[in-house]
Amino acid sequence: MTLPGWPRRTRFAGETGRSGEFPESVSAVAHWPGALPQEEPQVTPTDEPADTRTDVVADQIRQGIVLGSYPPGTRLRLAGLADELDVSRVPLREAFRELVAEGLVEVYPHRGAVVSPLREQEAEDCFRLLETFEVMAAERAVRSDHAGVAAAMRAELDRMDDLDPEVDRAEMLRAHRAFHFVTFDALGEGTMRRHVRMLWHTCERYINLANTGARHEEARQEHHQLVAAFAAGDAAVAAAVARVHVQHAADAALRRLSTETGADR
Predict the structure, then answer these.
(1) Domain end (from 115, 140, 167)
(2) Entry pTM
(3) Which domain holds residue 195?
(4) What's the number of CA atoms in the CB half-sphere (13 Å) around residue 106?
(5) Which of 84, 115, 146 corresponds to the end of one domain?
(6) Alpha carbon 200 to chain centroid, angstroms
């Protein structure tokens, strides 16, 4: 894909040093002098809460990164994104913090914020951790409310089956995420779910990279097998299918990374 066009260099109000520069390290993003407004913005009853706006903006940028609208190395200019997404710079700065924490965006002095490169080692780590979480979630969710989980998964699977993966890419991405999070949501708002949400955000572009070509149909069959295992209340089969599903995705993603994308090691 072609890189999106971006307007002139962004400058941040309130920063020390030369105006418009980013902090000297990625970890310093949480302490940008200009990251938060000097005065709280006025919020009317019809305005979304700030954290909701930030979540929406972060998800829009995240989706663009996962689907390749912002390829690795793309400079993310604040002014350009504010115009493109029709938002103010405040939620954008907060969204950047989230994306940096997830490893999707990196900040460099004199260059600014850029989309992180794809890395084979990161992909390997992602799938290794996802396998652990998926298997644990499958076992626990089956034992909690396997019929309810199966029904919710089937609804998302039906939604995916009605979509064209080449045309409805954004909707397919959301449905696929929702399908997998049915099991994580069944666990409640505990530690495991908090960690897997962050992990998924980091790893989703590798997951999406895997779900193409013949792998898409293979993954679809595995999704149906997962639903059948949950409907039967069989924790062992659900865990086994979940494990194989992640392993096959890892194989497909790493194969593409090594042969097609020029990913970093």
Answers:
(1) 115
(2) 0.76
(3) 120-261
(4) 11
(5) 115
(6) 6
